[in-house]
Amino acid sequence: MLATEDLNRLIKQIHRDNQGAGLLIPFMSQQYIHALHFWINRQYILGRHYPLETFGVVQAMYWSERMKAETVAATDIIKAPEHFKKDTKWKSWMESVTTYLHSKTGQAGVPLAAILRDHDLPISGTMYATAHDELVDASILVGPEFAINNGVIYYLLHSLTLNGPAWSWVQGFQRTRNGRATWKALLGYYEGDSMQTRSKQEAYNSISAAVYAGPRRGFDITTYTTIHQQAHQDLFRFGEPVPENKKGSRLFTRYYRSPMQCY
Hints:
The protein has 11 helices and no strands. By secondary structure, the protein is an all-alpha fold.
């Protein structure tokens, strides 16, 4: 697929080669050419047909505006994920990686988060609120653009897990540089039954260990509340049926002692 920079150079070359003949491409026509290029690229990356006879002035104006809007919407304010150092940090690390890749655009304007999605083929009939959602959910997972984006994902995961607890799951894909397969391998392990059982127990342990008996350095009522909230969120995420005697308010009260009780 012709890159936007190459298209710009082509238009300039046409102008230079035909200067004496007075052949120039008007500004609005250049805008429409870019809109056509953007539309073809979008249909291709979504696996759709793009018959040129259906693209007229109205479509050119519409896709020109969409192209500008999506360019303005691009952002680099999301912080890069930290190195994955502890198994117990999987959930927050996984979410930080996903969020970060939603903010990064790869080849053909596809958000890199598309490489991480669960399904291989788009779900027919799905309506999307934004172009971003559509690209993440429905862009094709084949072709040269996908291959480049897939490699980028692998190198990111490689750098974030090197010498950490997840390295053995990533190392096996060094030769193929298959980022999508690497991510699925990580999900298979960290979202699997054995790891879930371990994570549930750690959630219960963190609740039991969090005893509040008045503020002290590095541990106040906010810290205490956060531990309980995070542990219960983890249990809820794993579908853990929390017994009545272990529900949030009871556990919170059980392990809370006011400063007056300490005297």
